[in-house]
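We modelled each protein-ligand pair independently. The example shown here corresponds to the adenosine-5'-triphosphate entry; the chain sequence is given first, followed by the ligand as SMILES.
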Amino acid sequence: MTIMFNNSAPTPPADGSRGERVRFHDLDAGYPGRPALHQLSASITALTMTALVGPNGSGKSTLLGVLAGVIDATSGQLRYAEGRPPAFVPQRGAVGDTLPLTARQTVEMGRWGERGLWRRTTRQDRTAVDSAMERLGVAGLADRQLGELSGGQRQRVLIAQGLAQQSDLLLLDEPTTGLDPEARKRITALLTDLVADGTTVVQATHDLDAARSADACLLLSDGRLVGQGPPEQILTPTALSRIWQPA
Ligand SMILES: Nc1ncnc2c1ncn2[C@@H]1O[C@H](COP(=O)(O)OP(=O)(O)OP(=O)(O)O)[C@@H](O)[C@H]1O
Protein backbone atom coordinates (compact mmCIF):
# COMPACT_ATOMS: atom_id res chain seq x y z
CA MET A 1 0.00 0.00 0.00
CA THR A 2 1.44 3.36 -0.99
CA ILE A 3 0.48 6.68 0.51
CA MET A 4 1.73 9.71 -1.37
CA PHE A 5 1.58 13.42 -0.91
CA ASN A 6 2.08 15.78 -3.79
CA ASN A 7 2.62 19.48 -4.00
CA SER A 8 -0.49 20.65 -5.75
CA ALA A 9 -2.30 22.90 -3.26
CA PRO A 10 -6.08 22.40 -3.07
CA THR A 11 -6.91 25.84 -4.38
CA PRO A 12 -8.82 26.24 -7.63
CA PRO A 13 -6.57 26.83 -10.65
CA ALA A 14 -7.03 30.10 -12.55
CA ASP A 15 -9.22 28.43 -15.19
CA GLY A 16 -11.89 27.83 -12.53
CA SER A 17 -11.43 24.04 -12.47
CA ARG A 18 -10.66 22.42 -9.14
CA GLY A 19 -7.75 20.17 -8.29
CA GLU A 20 -7.89 16.76 -6.68
CA ARG A 21 -7.67 16.70 -2.88
CA VAL A 22 -7.50 12.91 -2.62
CA ARG A 23 -7.05 10.17 -5.21
CA PHE A 24 -7.03 6.45 -4.63
CA HIS A 25 -6.33 3.63 -7.03
CA ASP A 26 -7.03 -0.12 -6.73
CA LEU A 27 -7.61 0.27 -3.02
CA ASP A 28 -8.31 -2.89 -1.00
CA ALA A 29 -9.07 -2.77 2.73
CA GLY A 30 -10.90 -4.71 5.40
CA TYR A 31 -10.71 -6.43 8.74
CA PRO A 32 -8.98 -9.63 9.83
CA GLY A 33 -10.50 -12.39 7.71
CA ARG A 34 -13.05 -10.00 6.17
CA PRO A 35 -12.12 -7.98 3.09
CA ALA A 36 -14.47 -5.00 2.84
CA LEU A 37 -13.23 -2.85 -0.07
CA HIS A 38 -12.20 -4.23 -3.44
CA GLN A 39 -10.14 -2.39 -6.06
CA LEU A 40 -11.60 1.06 -5.45
CA SER A 41 -10.37 3.85 -7.74
CA ALA A 42 -11.72 7.40 -7.57
CA SER A 43 -10.77 10.97 -6.81
CA ILE A 44 -12.19 13.58 -4.46
CA THR A 45 -12.17 17.05 -5.96
CA ALA A 46 -10.90 19.83 -3.69
CA LEU A 47 -13.39 22.32 -2.29
CA THR A 48 -16.42 20.16 -3.04
CA MET A 49 -18.80 17.98 -1.07
CA THR A 50 -18.66 14.28 -1.87
CA ALA A 51 -21.29 11.84 -0.58
CA LEU A 52 -20.48 8.16 -0.04
CA VAL A 53 -23.72 6.31 -0.65
CA GLY A 54 -24.65 2.63 -0.47
CA PRO A 55 -26.58 0.07 1.54
CA ASN A 56 -25.61 -1.13 5.03
CA GLY A 57 -22.33 -2.98 4.90
CA SER A 58 -21.36 -1.66 1.47
CA GLY A 59 -18.08 -0.22 2.81
CA LYS A 60 -18.75 3.50 3.36
CA SER A 61 -17.35 3.65 6.91
CA THR A 62 -14.38 1.51 5.93
CA LEU A 63 -13.54 3.83 3.05
CA LEU A 64 -13.84 6.88 5.32
CA GLY A 65 -11.62 5.13 7.86
CA VAL A 66 -8.98 4.50 5.20
CA LEU A 67 -9.14 8.13 4.00
CA ALA A 68 -8.88 9.27 7.65
CA GLY A 69 -5.86 7.03 8.26
CA VAL A 70 -7.51 4.99 11.02
CA ILE A 71 -7.81 1.84 8.87
CA ASP A 72 -4.85 0.61 6.83
CA ALA A 73 -5.49 -0.30 3.21
CA THR A 74 -4.10 -3.73 2.38
CA SER A 75 -3.11 -2.71 -1.15
CA GLY A 76 -3.46 0.08 -3.66
CA GLN A 77 -2.44 3.71 -3.73
CA LEU A 78 -3.76 6.68 -1.80
CA ARG A 79 -2.60 10.15 -2.74
CA TYR A 80 -3.38 13.39 -0.89
CA ALA A 81 -2.77 16.83 -2.32
CA GLU A 82 -0.88 19.14 -0.02
CA GLY A 83 -2.96 20.21 2.94
CA ARG A 84 -3.57 19.48 6.60
CA PRO A 85 -4.17 15.97 7.93
CA PRO A 86 -7.85 15.06 7.56
CA ALA A 87 -10.32 15.66 10.40
CA PHE A 88 -12.58 12.67 11.03
CA VAL A 89 -16.02 12.82 12.65
CA PRO A 90 -17.07 9.24 13.51
CA GLN A 91 -20.62 7.92 13.69
CA ARG A 92 -22.41 9.27 16.74
CA GLY A 93 -23.17 5.70 17.86
CA ALA A 94 -19.44 4.91 17.87
CA VAL A 95 -18.83 7.42 20.67
CA GLY A 96 -19.70 6.06 24.12
CA ASP A 97 -22.58 7.73 25.96
CA THR A 98 -20.95 7.06 29.27
CA LEU A 99 -17.68 8.93 28.68
CA PRO A 100 -17.32 11.37 31.59
CA LEU A 101 -16.71 14.34 29.30
CA THR A 102 -18.37 17.69 28.97
CA ALA A 103 -19.29 19.00 25.54
CA ARG A 104 -16.38 21.44 25.69
CA GLN A 105 -13.88 18.75 26.69
CA THR A 106 -15.13 16.67 23.76
CA VAL A 107 -14.49 19.53 21.34
CA GLU A 108 -11.10 20.21 22.96
CA MET A 109 -10.06 16.65 22.06
CA GLY A 110 -10.05 17.91 18.48
CA ARG A 111 -6.90 19.88 19.39
CA TRP A 112 -4.94 16.85 20.63
CA GLY A 113 -3.49 16.12 17.22
CA GLU A 114 -2.18 19.68 16.99
CA ARG A 115 -0.77 20.08 20.51
CA GLY A 116 -0.29 16.49 21.75
CA LEU A 117 -1.86 15.19 24.94
CA TRP A 118 0.48 16.84 27.40
CA ARG A 119 1.17 20.36 26.17
CA ARG A 120 -0.91 23.07 27.86
CA THR A 121 -3.79 24.54 25.92
CA THR A 122 -2.80 27.70 24.09
CA ARG A 123 -4.84 30.73 23.18
CA GLN A 124 -4.95 29.38 19.63
CA ASP A 125 -6.45 26.11 20.91
CA ARG A 126 -9.09 28.00 22.91
CA THR A 127 -9.96 30.21 19.96
CA ALA A 128 -10.33 27.18 17.66
CA VAL A 129 -12.59 25.44 20.21
CA ASP A 130 -14.69 28.58 20.87
CA SER A 131 -15.18 29.29 17.21
CA ALA A 132 -16.09 25.66 16.35
CA MET A 133 -18.63 25.55 19.21
CA GLU A 134 -20.17 28.86 18.19
CA ARG A 135 -20.40 27.80 14.56
CA LEU A 136 -22.28 24.62 15.55
CA GLY A 137 -24.49 26.50 18.05
CA VAL A 138 -23.28 24.41 21.01
CA ALA A 139 -21.43 27.06 23.04
CA GLY A 140 -24.35 27.11 25.50
CA LEU A 141 -23.92 23.37 26.12
CA ALA A 142 -20.22 23.65 27.04
CA ASP A 143 -20.55 22.36 30.62
CA ARG A 144 -23.16 19.66 29.94
CA GLN A 145 -22.09 16.02 30.01
CA LEU A 146 -21.89 14.51 26.51
CA GLY A 147 -24.05 11.56 27.59
CA GLU A 148 -26.85 13.90 28.71
CA LEU A 149 -27.22 15.58 25.33
CA SER A 150 -29.87 14.78 22.75
CA GLY A 151 -28.80 12.95 19.60
CA GLY A 152 -28.80 16.15 17.53
CA GLN A 153 -26.87 18.11 20.17
CA ARG A 154 -24.28 15.34 20.50
CA GLN A 155 -23.91 15.19 16.73
CA ARG A 156 -23.23 18.93 16.59
CA VAL A 157 -20.64 18.61 19.39
CA LEU A 158 -18.84 15.88 17.41
CA ILE A 159 -18.85 17.99 14.26
CA ALA A 160 -17.48 20.89 16.33
CA GLN A 161 -14.67 18.56 17.45
CA GLY A 162 -13.92 17.93 13.76
CA LEU A 163 -13.97 21.67 12.98
CA ALA A 164 -11.67 22.44 15.92
CA GLN A 165 -8.99 20.47 14.06
CA GLN A 166 -8.99 23.25 11.46
CA SER A 167 -8.34 20.86 8.61
CA ASP A 168 -9.21 21.65 5.02
CA LEU A 169 -10.39 18.02 4.61
CA LEU A 170 -13.36 17.00 6.76
CA LEU A 171 -14.57 13.39 6.73
CA LEU A 172 -17.89 12.63 8.41
CA ASP A 173 -19.58 9.29 9.00
CA GLU A 174 -23.36 9.67 8.76
CA PRO A 175 -23.56 13.15 10.29
CA THR A 176 -27.34 13.40 9.85
CA THR A 177 -28.46 9.86 10.72
CA GLY A 178 -31.14 9.72 13.40
CA LEU A 179 -31.81 13.45 13.36
CA ASP A 180 -35.15 15.12 12.70
CA PRO A 181 -35.66 16.73 9.28
CA GLU A 182 -34.96 20.25 10.59
CA ALA A 183 -31.67 19.21 12.25
CA ARG A 184 -30.69 17.28 9.10
CA LYS A 185 -31.25 20.36 6.97
CA ARG A 186 -29.22 22.54 9.37
CA ILE A 187 -26.25 20.19 9.28
CA THR A 188 -26.40 19.83 5.50
CA ALA A 189 -26.49 23.64 5.16
CA LEU A 190 -23.55 23.97 7.54
CA LEU A 191 -21.50 21.48 5.52
CA THR A 192 -22.33 23.38 2.34
CA ASP A 193 -21.13 26.60 4.03
CA LEU A 194 -17.89 24.89 5.06
CA VAL A 195 -17.22 23.96 1.44
CA ALA A 196 -17.84 27.57 0.41
CA ASP A 197 -15.34 28.62 3.11
CA GLY A 198 -12.56 26.40 1.71
CA THR A 199 -13.06 22.92 3.15
CA THR A 200 -13.28 19.68 1.16
CA VAL A 201 -16.06 17.63 2.75
CA VAL A 202 -16.65 13.89 2.39
CA GLN A 203 -19.64 12.37 4.16
CA ALA A 204 -20.97 8.83 4.31
CA THR A 205 -24.73 9.10 4.32
CA HIS A 206 -28.04 7.27 4.04
CA ASP A 207 -29.78 10.63 3.69
CA LEU A 208 -30.57 10.87 -0.02
CA ASP A 209 -31.50 14.57 0.29
CA ALA A 210 -28.01 15.26 1.67
CA ALA A 211 -26.46 13.11 -1.07
CA ARG A 212 -28.43 14.97 -3.76
CA SER A 213 -27.10 18.28 -2.44
CA ALA A 214 -23.49 17.06 -2.80
CA ASP A 215 -21.30 17.93 -5.78
CA ALA A 216 -20.37 14.30 -6.37
CA CYS A 217 -21.40 10.86 -5.19
CA LEU A 218 -19.45 7.64 -4.86
CA LEU A 219 -21.92 4.76 -4.93
CA LEU A 220 -20.77 1.59 -3.17
CA SER A 221 -22.24 -1.87 -3.29
CA ASP A 222 -20.69 -4.88 -1.60
CA GLY A 223 -17.34 -3.13 -1.17
CA ARG A 224 -17.10 -2.11 -4.83
CA LEU A 225 -17.50 1.26 -6.44
CA VAL A 226 -20.44 0.98 -8.80
CA GLY A 227 -20.86 4.65 -9.71
CA GLN A 228 -19.14 8.01 -9.37
CA GLY A 229 -20.20 11.41 -10.61
CA PRO A 230 -22.79 14.13 -10.04
CA PRO A 231 -25.79 13.00 -7.94
CA GLU A 232 -28.27 13.43 -10.79
CA GLN A 233 -26.27 10.90 -12.83
CA ILE A 234 -25.59 8.47 -10.00
CA LEU A 235 -28.69 8.48 -7.80
CA THR A 236 -31.10 7.49 -10.53
CA PRO A 237 -34.21 5.48 -9.61
CA THR A 238 -32.84 2.53 -11.60
CA ALA A 239 -29.46 2.53 -9.85
CA LEU A 240 -31.04 2.94 -6.42
CA SER A 241 -33.57 0.16 -6.88
CA ARG A 242 -30.91 -2.16 -8.28
CA ILE A 243 -28.57 -1.61 -5.35
CA TRP A 244 -31.16 -1.65 -2.61
CA GLN A 245 -32.94 -4.70 -4.01
CA PRO A 246 -33.37 -7.31 -1.25
CA ALA A 247 -31.08 -10.30 -1.80
N1 LIG B 1 -14.81 -3.86 12.97
C1 LIG B 1 -15.14 -4.72 12.00
N2 LIG B 1 -14.70 -5.99 12.03
C2 LIG B 1 -15.02 -6.88 11.06
N3 LIG B 1 -15.78 -6.58 10.00
C3 LIG B 1 -16.25 -5.32 9.92
C4 LIG B 1 -15.96 -4.33 10.91
N4 LIG B 1 -16.57 -3.18 10.56
C5 LIG B 1 -17.22 -3.43 9.41
N5 LIG B 1 -17.03 -4.70 9.03
C6 LIG B 1 -17.54 -5.35 7.81
O1 LIG B 1 -17.02 -4.63 6.69
C7 LIG B 1 -18.02 -4.49 5.68
C8 LIG B 1 -18.23 -3.00 5.37
O2 LIG B 1 -18.73 -2.38 6.55
P1 LIG B 1 -18.88 -0.79 6.66
O3 LIG B 1 -19.15 -0.49 8.11
O4 LIG B 1 -17.73 -0.15 6.02
O5 LIG B 1 -20.19 -0.54 5.79
P2 LIG B 1 -21.13 0.75 5.72
O6 LIG B 1 -21.47 0.93 4.30
O7 LIG B 1 -20.50 1.90 6.44
O8 LIG B 1 -22.39 0.23 6.54
P3 LIG B 1 -23.51 1.09 7.36
O9 LIG B 1 -24.31 1.84 6.37
O10 LIG B 1 -24.31 -0.02 8.01
O11 LIG B 1 -22.79 1.95 8.37
C9 LIG B 1 -19.27 -5.20 6.21
O12 LIG B 1 -19.29 -6.50 5.68
C10 LIG B 1 -19.05 -5.24 7.69
O13 LIG B 1 -19.68 -6.37 8.26
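The pocket of adenosine-5'-triphosphate is lined by residues 31, 34, 36, 54, 56-62, 204 (CB under 6 Å).
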